[in-house]
């Protein structure tokens, strides 16, 4: 018997009480030598790090303290990974979170590099540092001279895309340990980034809060919190999937009725997820999100300076760059699991009618950027997102996807006199048993339908029609998922598309190209939108997709799975 109990097993780091969230609250602070990383993270808050060096609301002193912080990161020793950080998963996750935040703080708080205007200035600063500056007063302290040199180097873009070895080495080590890439991920910002309001009360929607943010804003907290609440509410969805699949193995009349009931409960859960998602608007300000939060998430694939990739110093060959994506809630294993369970096909390999196969697979070209993560080049966005999930969650999705009761089901039918259980003729090409007629040109059969869909398609046993509403319950679940995606598209339109058309507010306007490092306050007046490379044409998501067409495709893939008409 296929082991559906493992749908909520420790093997996959999934817990019956907390789903994809760890059952215990994440560690809130590292210990031992790794305290140093925590102090650097606290230092980031005190240094007042701002995106791209800060807009016109920052000042010389803040910029200088941010530079000093970045220098201290470069000068930090490379701490070896040993002891508790490897022995205790909570420590490993916290360490990954802290290093991810430090790296993104370090890279995205640097000012935009200037072109040639800074070369003479850099020279002057270096001379001052060496005490050689002609006509200059030689009262420049060593600290000030170092700072001046840093300012010049940063302005020249020397450090712009390099994760210093002090971060890169342990970060990549921990990433291997946790089986996810060295980049800020959904797991880092949501699954491992919360604490209890009241530890005595345990996991409840109103008893969790977010631990770390970049911007220190309520908007950023709320942004992560909504995903966290969605994961929490989704625990019941995972349970419903598990018990439905248990029944799908039995697949008799009673089991079908039970599955229909579980699907109707799943509709209610997905409805709640939609309601929670809509609550994003209650406390996450779209302007703050777009200009003041989202840029911190950028990965090496979409750096402000054109997505040149990041160098992981001390890890990779000199000159080698990694083009990893920043976090996206597209990395939520919960939503992927719902898709797999309901057999929503984002690969478009399964026959689902002419419209489905004719539509292009989204974002195939972009897949090249994921070479480093070992992702196949023609992967869809959704497949690529799985490479950013913690390894056990990715393994769970593979396990769920590969669940097939076909052989067992035939045996069961035979033993129970149910021989001839046949799929419906609508849609004819979508049944597991008729797939041989629908082979593609290479004679490779399309992947079979997932068990719940197979059962929902089946209309009769030995000429006796099923008298249940499994097919309509299955469709209702798909429609609830479509409604969730409708809401998600509204959110994306509000938080990204409309903002991309506007100028940044002053506090988020980056420094101008001709910034000399001396001005106290600069006004950019939108000369360099942080998303200038994205703003013309279709806005892109954090993960770098052509957002509108991609989200529409995901929604169509959902409704393409419907057995009946779209109501
Ligand atoms: C302000 C809030 C949000 C915005 C602006 C937003 C935006 C986006 C964008 C631009 C994408 C395209 C992929 C990419 O390039 O990253 C995406 C994908 C996705 N997002 Fe969100 N998102 C938000 C919140 C959420 C939340 C809370 C969830 C649920 C946990 C979620 C789930 C997904 C999923 C599953 C995808 C993959 C596409 C799909 O399945 O339809 N998003 N989102």
UniProtKB/TrEMBL annotation:
<dbReference type="GO" id="GO:0020037">
    <property type="term" value="F:heme binding"/>
</dbReference>
<feature type="region of interest" description="Disordered">
    <location>
        <begin position="416"/>
        <end position="451"/>
    </location>
</feature>
<keyword id="KW-0479">Metal-binding</keyword>
<feature type="binding site" description="proximal binding residue">
    <location>
        <position position="488"/>
    </location>
    <ligand>
        <name>heme b</name>
    </ligand>
</feature>
<keyword id="KW-0408">Iron</keyword>
<dbReference type="InterPro" id="IPR037217">
    <property type="entry name" value="Trp/Indoleamine_2_3_dOase-like"/>
</dbReference>
<comment type="similarity">
    <text>Belongs to the indoleamine 2,3-dioxygenase family.</text>
</comment>
<dbReference type="Pfam" id="PF01231">
    <property type="entry name" value="IDO"/>
</dbReference>
<dbReference type="GO" id="GO:0034354">
    <property type="term" value="P:'de novo' NAD+ biosynthetic process from L-tryptophan"/>
</dbReference>
<dbReference type="GO" id="GO:0033754">
    <property type="term" value="F:indoleamine 2,3-dioxygenase activity"/>
</dbReference>
<dbReference type="GO" id="GO:0046872">
    <property type="term" value="F:metal ion binding"/>
</dbReference>
<feature type="region of interest" description="Disordered">
    <location>
        <begin position="522"/>
        <end position="544"/>
    </location>
</feature>
<dbReference type="GO" id="GO:0005737">
    <property type="term" value="C:cytoplasm"/>
</dbReference>
<dbReference type="GO" id="GO:0019441">
    <property type="term" value="P:L-tryptophan catabolic process to kynurenine"/>
</dbReference>
<keyword id="KW-0223">Dioxygenase</keyword>
<keyword id="KW-0349">Heme</keyword>
<dbReference type="InterPro" id="IPR000898">
    <property type="entry name" value="Indolamine_dOase"/>
</dbReference>
<feature type="compositionally biased region" description="Low complexity">
    <location>
        <begin position="422"/>
        <end position="436"/>
    </location>
</feature>
<protein>
    <submittedName>
        <fullName>Indoleamine 2,3-dioxygenase</fullName>
    </submittedName>
</protein>
<keyword id="KW-0560">Oxidoreductase</keyword>
């Amino acid at each position: 018997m296929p082991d559906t109990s493992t749908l909520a097993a420790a093997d996959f780091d999934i817990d019956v009480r907390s789903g994809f969230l760890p059952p215990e609250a994440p560690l809130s602070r590292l210990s031992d030598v790794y305290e140093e990383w925590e102090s650097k993270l606290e230092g980031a808050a005190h240094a007042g790090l701002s995106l791209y060096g800060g807009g016109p609301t920052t000042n010389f002193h803040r910029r200088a303290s941010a530079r000093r912080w970045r220098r201290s990161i470069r000068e930090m020793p490379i701490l070896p990974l040993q002891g508790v950080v490897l022995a205790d998963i909570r420590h490993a996750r916290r360490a990954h979170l802290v290093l991810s935040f430090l790296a993104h703080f370090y890279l995205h708080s640097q000012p935009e590099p200037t072109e040639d205007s800074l070369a003479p200035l850099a020279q002057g600063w270096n001379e001052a540092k060496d005490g050689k500056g002609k006509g200059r007063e030689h009262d420049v302290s060593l600290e000030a001279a170092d700072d001046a040199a840093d300012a010049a180097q940063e302005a020249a873009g020397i450090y712009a895309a390099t994760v210093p070895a002090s971060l890169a080495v342990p970060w990549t080590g921990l990433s291997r340990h946790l089986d996810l890439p060295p980049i800020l991920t959904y797991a880092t910002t949501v699954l491992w980034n919360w604490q209890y309001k009241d530890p005595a009360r345990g996991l409840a929607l109103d008893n969790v809060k977010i631990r770390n943010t970049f911007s220190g804003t309520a908007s950023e907290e709320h942004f992560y919190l909504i995903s966290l609440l969605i994961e929490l509410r989704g625990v019941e969805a995972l349970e419903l999937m598990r018990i439905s699949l248990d029944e799908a193995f039995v697949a008799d009349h009673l089991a079908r009725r039970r599955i229909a009931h579980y699907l109707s409960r799943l509709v209610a859960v997905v409805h709640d997820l939609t309601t929670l998602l809509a609550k994003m608007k209650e406390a996450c300000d779209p302007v703050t999100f777009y200009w003041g939060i989202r840029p911190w998430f950028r990965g090496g694939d979409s750096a402000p300076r054109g997505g040149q990739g990041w160098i992981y110093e001390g890890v990779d060959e000199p000159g080698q760059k990694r083009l990893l994506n920043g976090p996206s809630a597209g990395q939520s294993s919960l939503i992927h699991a719902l898709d797999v369970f309901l057999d929503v096909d984002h690969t478009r390999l399964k026959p689902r009618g002419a419209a489905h196969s004719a539509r292009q697979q989204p974002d195939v070209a972009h897949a090249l950027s994921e070479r480093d993560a070992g992702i196949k080049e023609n992967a869809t966005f959704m497949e690529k997102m799985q490479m950013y999930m913690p390894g056990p969650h990715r393994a769970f999705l593979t396990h769920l996807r590969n669940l097939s009761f076909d052989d067992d089901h035939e045996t069961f039918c035979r033993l129970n006199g149910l021989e001839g259980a046949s799929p419906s003729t609508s849609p004819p090409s979508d049944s597991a048993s008729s797939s041989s007629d629908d082979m593609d040109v290479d004679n490779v059969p399309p992947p079979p339908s997932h068990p719940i869909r197979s059962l929902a398609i089946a209309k009769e046993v030995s000429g006796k029609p099923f008298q249940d509403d499994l097919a309509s319950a299955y469709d209702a679940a798909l429609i609830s998922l479509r409604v969730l995606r409708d809401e998600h598209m509204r959110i994306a339109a509000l938080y990204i598309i409309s903002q991309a058309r506007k100028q940044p507010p002053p506090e988020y306007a980056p420094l101008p190209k001709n910034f000399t490092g001396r001005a106290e306050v600069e006004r950019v007046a939108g000369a360099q939108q942080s998303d200038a490379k994205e703003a013309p044409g279709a806005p892109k998501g954090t993960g770098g997709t052509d957002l509108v067409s991609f989200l529409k495709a995901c929604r169509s893939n959902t409704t393409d799975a419907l057995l009946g008409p779209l109501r």
